[in-house]
Amino acid sequence: MGSINFNNALGVHPDAMLLRAKRAEILANNLANSDTPGFKARDINFQAMLAKESKKHASSNSLDMNATNSAHIVTGSRSNSELQYRNPSQPSIDGNTVDTQIEQTLFTRNAMDYNTSFEFLNGKFKGLKSAIRGE
Amino acid sequence: MSLGNIFDIAGSGMNAQSMRLNTTASNIANADSASSSIDETYRARKPFFAVMHNEFLNVNKDNQFHSQGDEIGAGVQVKGIVESDAPLQPRFQPDHPLANEEGYVYYPNVNVVEEMTDMMSSSRSYQMNVEVLKTAKQMLQRTLMLGE
Known about the structure:
The structure holds two protein chains of two kinds. By secondary structure, chain A is mainly α. Chain A has helices at residues 6-10, 13-32, 46-58, 100-133; strands at residues 42-44, 83-85. The longest helix of chain A is centred in the last third of the chain and has 34 residues, at 100-133. Chain A is flat, with a radius of gyration of 19 Å. By secondary structure, chain B is α+β, with helices and mostly antiparallel strands. In chain B, the strands form three sheets. In chain B, strands 1-4 form a two-stranded antiparallel sheet. A two-stranded antiparallel ribbon of chain B has the order 2-3.
């Protein structure tokens, strides 16, 4: 199929939106735990994860193992390294590494980027719609 | 759905902060509740927070197992409320109706300045969680409009 295939037409944006939503959850959890003693702020490397996600889409021969039996446990190639710890600029005495200002700006920026991806996706859908109607 | 989880996370944060505000209110209200014996005197109460986790080993849709270290956490919880160990304040007030045989009255170990800063901190944290909730709501609402 040509360019009207959904995967080709929508590009990277559906993946980006999913990842943005996931990141919003991580940052919201950081903010909720801003007063929890010993809590370490976490985040993902957005660029690296998006690149990996798009590559998985482009070629399906990723490093994941096949599950040929229902008893097989699918572990995938996921590792703990995806979720990283933030380096605090002002570590507090109770071991908490959440900098509320940093987390809040990142959260807002992440939400803006989510909306950007949304606008792109919305535009693509509008384009597809007018192509289908042919008016 | 990740965006739906944010509602739970921010909600747990608001719940925890309101509980902290509640203990602060109780402490300030009882800052001058005198008593005649050490055992009966009010002691400052403090909540302590901990990260809320999903089940120890949760299986998601793709049958993928995640160890606890890999998961993000699902908000904050109040593990319990502890009474402060700080010494009580005995005051020599023989005319006080609650004074003991030696003329002492015991006052709670509430530090009002500390309580006020705690109050400001928890109210700010509460507001922050509300902002997170508001943003997540807007994101979800916009997503529902996709393609219109």
